[in-house]
Write a structure and sequence with these properties.
With about 350 residues, the protein is mainly α. The protein has a domain at about 125-325. The chain is built from 13 helices and two strands. The chain has a two-stranded antiparallel ribbon. The longest helix is centred in the first third of the chain and has 29 residues, at about 55-85.
Length: about 350
Amino acid sequence: MSKTLMDTNPGRPQIPASEAASPAAERTVTLLSDSDEKPLGPVHPPLLEILAGPQIHFVIARWLIYLALGFGVLFLYGAALRAVHPHRGGSVWWTMASELGLMVAAVVPGFVMALVERRPFGDFGLPSRGAFGPNFWVGALWGLGSLTLLMLVLRAAGVFYFGSLALHGARVAGFAAFYIVFFLMTGVFEDFLLRGYSQWILSKALKFWPAAVVLSVIFGALHTSNSGETISGVLAVVAIGLFFCLTLRRTGTLWWAVGFHMAWDWGESYLYSVPDSGTTLRGHLLNSSIHGAAWLTGGSAGPEGSYLVFGLIAVMWVLFSRVYPDVKYGVAQEPAAQPTSTTT
């Protein structure tokens, strides 16, 4: 009977000493040892490896697939919209239809990637069970409340005036409802595009906060295409993007951020009737006016380009961290330990 190599792992096959000296045996021992820590998975086709690999270039490939799907959906939607309405622009309903297309182009590819990733779509930040739940409405309250505080400070400084009503009768409620729906779509589009699947997948390679910084910078860069945007306005967009990432991190979903985003934009564009990221929309409530030093008023970007916004975001960051102290995003829910019974 040949002598065998002794091993402390009782589940590992024993290798005869006569074979242990051979290179093949050494390779066998190495593979067996590695398998104790990280089981060797099956070999996948190259395409599946791109979709399933954890390395940075695999992560980037999956993100680019998501973005490519989004551009494809947007192209098809735009072609269908032009077939129905050949002349771009015109009524506010065209603006609504265009915003709907952007939202669809961000969300639909998320469902496709959920199939690819073999996980629920809700893992990317917009679970259906949280839609219009407490997080959404609390976020909306924070958004409208913080903007109102900013506008009152600007009024006290003598650089903002409410003016008279620009709408009357049923048009007041009609445009109010119109822009609630419009900015809800804006919030879902922008927050899911840059803090939904994108945040989830880039966090696999860059961790949460590095990914959040990259995506928030992209968020700001996208706003540079607005004609009235300013440098301070773009920096404020980056800062608010990071704040939205904090809300995702602490609440576990994007619904708080979507509610805040909707209410803030609605308050700027409709309620207080001031520029929003350099854009003034038709159908606003007031004939308001804003004038004074650009660092204080935000200039052509609107109040969110004011230097005061950075202090406001800092205060909200501290308060939010106190109200929501626990990290919930990306934290695996471990099953509760079952008590062990002993017999005598």
